[in-house]
């Protein structure tokens, strides 16, 4: 591999309103090299990557970013990305330097199909005809492992799962075979098996085209498996850099050691439920079916069926955690929505021994017993509501007789339970969600769920969007709350390590069916089904 730098960043500084957030950092990437930029939220790593293409609004940039692209005019040398005219830079974006954004739902246009959006890049930069571009877009989707690529190319972003949207974004970024790929958390929303497919794909394209990759991530397993070199960022400074194996085996900086020591740890109580104890949640033959259009004339008269969950059986005992693991599209989130009484279903589903009644006071009491914490606290918390309004909202429904002072006291108690106090955050109840970090917002979401004293929390990927250090803190918080309150959890995740740290029992789902279930130790340490073995092997490979 050539050591001639493809990109040289020298004394890069980024400021907003005169306040500097990236403080004179230096790094370089050779052609065909993979450099990981690692750090927690707020460390400056994403701002650094976006600044290279001048995609950060109102940012004050200084320093140099010298790019030796494939179309440099002879004698002119490398181009400074920070000084190029905007028109010239538009020709580089997407063609010579591409970017994979962290959140595909906001990066993809909701009004166009994913195939059209990928084809647009090819028509613009590769001068393909509309037909050629569409065929190439379908092939790119197939290369990223997306199922039924021709059909998915005709889908809009909202019709795809989170993992499928991320794969579509990756296909778009790789469309023009760029010299440099800026990948901002490219596999955060992906399952372990799909993550391995994407990493293998990037490796293959890199070897074939000599593409360099700047990987922005907080996932140390991803860095260990994928990158050649790593640069660790803290508070806008690069505090350590070097070859991945050297940095991971003998980290020199305390912050690097803190990141490496942040793997999830198991600290759950071994609760033995009485044989005659009523399960907090029990399902028998649970089935969820969606209507879908049928092709041809038959579709005029009758809809087809898509079976999202087929005949699921499970139970959650008091004080225990059921882990639900599977890839995107396996049906695990649909299972959770049905358990919450938010989807019509067939079969038997009972919460604390009672079935959903599709409305009325009976369902209201079940909703108090069963609360939910979503994956992304930023989108699940209203930006227009204060902390007090968000956390105490459930009391207006489930405890309407409480006066304002009592509701405020209960809100402060719930916030203290999750580690948020007015001593840390003056005027805590009057603040808004945007004033908190990602981990703190997730604590707000947990407090909102806890305030009505539920028996069961449904946790839908509660830590997948968090840094490793914050993830460990949130998992420790959930473990403590379970021990103190006797809570039960239904934990939905694709992260095998989180299941290993949190669950008592686990079910493995694929294509809407439960393939394997049992105690977490047996299922993960001695899996019987080939698919379970594949999931565990992919997690261990990281």
Structural description of this entry:
With 542 residues, the protein is α/β, with parallel strands linked by helices. Among the domains are: 100-177, no CATH class; 318-541, P-loop containing nucleotide triphosphate hydrolases (Rossmann fold, 3-Layer(aba) Sandwich), CATH 3.40.50. Helices cover 38% and strands 25% of the residues. It has a six-stranded mixed β-sheet, sandwiched between helices. The two termini are 24 Å apart.
What's this entry about, in short?
The protein has 542 residues and is an alpha/beta fold. Among the domains are: 100-177, no CATH class; 318-541, P-loop containing nucleotide triphosphate hydrolases (Rossmann fold), CATH 3.40.50.300.
